[in-house]
Amino acid sequence: MGILDITGWHPSKEFVLEHLKPPKRLRLKLESFPRGLDGARIDVWLGDQLQQGIADLVELGLAKRMQTLQLSNAPALNALEASNRFQDAYDAAAQAAARRARSEGRRELYQLFHLAVVKQILLVLDARIRAWGEGEEGAMGVGAPETGGLARAERLRQFRRCQSRLRYLAAHDVLSIVHSLDRVARKRRKSLLAVSWPVAEELLFNPLLQLDDLGCEESFLELYPLVLLDPQRFREMERAVLVPLREWLPPQCLQQPPQLDVQSLKSLPVRQDQGELNGYAQVEAYLRRVMIPEEYQQRIACWLDRPRNLVRLLGGERKGGGTGPWRHARWPAFQKALLEEVERALDREGLLEPLYASLCLRKIYPELGRRGTPSLLLDYLLAKRSRQEVITALERLEEIPNLPAYHAALSQARKELRQASPATRRHWLLESLEGFARLRRDLKLAWEGYSAMDGFRLLERREDVQLSRENGLLQDFTPGAVSPRRLQGHVILKADLRGSTELIAELGRAGINPATYFTHNLFGPLNGLLRNFGAEKVFLEGDAAILIIEEGGGDSVMPVARACALAQELIALVAERNRENRHQGLPELELGVGIAWEQGAPTFLFDEGRRITISPAIHRADRLSSSDLPRAFLERLRGSGFSATGVEEVLFRESANPVSEQVQLRRYNVNGIELDRPAFEHLRQELVMKRVEESGGQIGHRHHVGRFMDDSGKTRWLVVREAPLLMWDGRELAVMEGEGARHFYEVVASPELARKIRNRLAGKN
Predict the structure, then answer these.
(1) Domain count, the chain
(2) pTM for the whole thing?
(3) Fewer CB within 10 Å, N or C, the chain?
């Protein structure tokens, strides 16, 4: 290598990298949040106060910049009041988010909050600018009295020409206020979260998030070398800079991305926030042309992501004190040789003079009144356009009051560019290299920020907020908001009441008000039972009730056990009513109860404010509570020596041919309680249950006995009968046996029978 020939000394890779540390940034971990109502993105709500504070701050920032750009002189909000309102709302929400993140041990909560604030600012800003650009009456003063003799159409034309610049300046102003507040609060965040910036500072306040249009030359010129606006020139500079430094770089930084045609660049993946933030597609299109996806998508850390590292390595910053390569006697010569190699590579790529011209133009552009297209002026400084070409183009703009003075300033800059001293050119080179590294870092961080913000949506409609909250999906950052309870599962209990039609008819004939009867004897006691067992109504009508008991994370509520005890109470309640009905000569009621368990939370919908619960367990519990086995067949069943209780299940085969698969399941559930298999398995996790084999010799029959203590301190026993399905082929009954034989599960509702089985378990006769 040429460097070795010049210096005769070469530092080791490890020795150099020890002093070129990559920045330490926490990884964004938003994947831990549940998907929201759309099934794809996280639902976020910042609350009314913070949203209004953001809206006021954005309007203030826009109004001030509209005046700066001479687009409007509409009166602005009271700056102090708007700033104070935002600061109060933001400070309260930020503290609440930090405390919640600490209490739950999830720093990603604060990451989501921080990103949501930035996204809300950008969305509100874009909405305001869009309203102005579309000429909406009253939007940012469009409908105000005309001033300065400008017609409304002319003002709109000027606005649309400056729209991208306005967006960047206003976004920069508003986010600078947020940045200053965050810097003040960073020690408080560290005390709560053990880190000052849960989201990297340079990601949150990335200029490319503020500059949603990469084609805005004036804003790009302020931030980076203008020549790098072209991705092809960026690739050429990357090749010139990184190849001489390849020894100290990860291999991903040196791999060249595939050449992409225009059609390939247009075929970007469909985004969830399509249309929300325009900069996302532009940043990704740029990155796809200059960098392999693995580097920015996998967040590969590199010392080059700290731009000052590149300047230090090439001699632009002297390291004071300590040890390391910067203290080695031959290190300055090595740096000088390395910088010269980079300089020669840039010159071979034809980039050296364009980089210098970009810096000169950045310096004089404000002195030129920010008039004229930057790319046109850059071409003039590089002698790519003649004086007459530039003057003709500038005359068409009709916005430069003193064209001779303007061109004189340009000519002087062109002269200074040609006559710059070696020291000045070295300074320009190092500044250009830092600008390149900063753009490289900002592109990667902007993609990461856009990608993260693409993964959540900020809800606006009250109906969506309510629906998401009820489903336990909403990430609510309103101060004082309670974290959504994560449900492990839920139990659905369906109580099917039969005989109510006949009872209502008899009540009418007896002069008894049916509404009063059912309210006093059934619905009133039912409400008391719901409170005792922590159940809620899902659906209630005259002859059916669907109830739910939820199991939250970390709770030991024993939802299935509670549902079984509640079902026993319902059976006892109906039995008591039937005793009174017999005494009064009224028809009796029958009750069938089905209990089904479902892992996870149910889904909630709203119909005109009424909550509707959706769960697969509802359909299963409905089937379990039904009864369609003829009573005559039940008598045949008992006459065949089978012990029929409140629940039986029989498979009816259409023919005696054992090959036939045409079967139909018929169920008998009269004053019985049936569990589905998932509910039974979960019950065995909730309680210690002991098995009691059936003493009557019936194959496959057994009982499971357990107990638990309810909220009142009362010990409740549960006895579950496990029995195989029966098969009827039209001639005889048979018990399904062998591997794969199906069973059903009945909670014994009869206190006498349950006591008898418990005694058998205890060894009592």
Answers:
(1) 1
(2) 0.74
(3) C
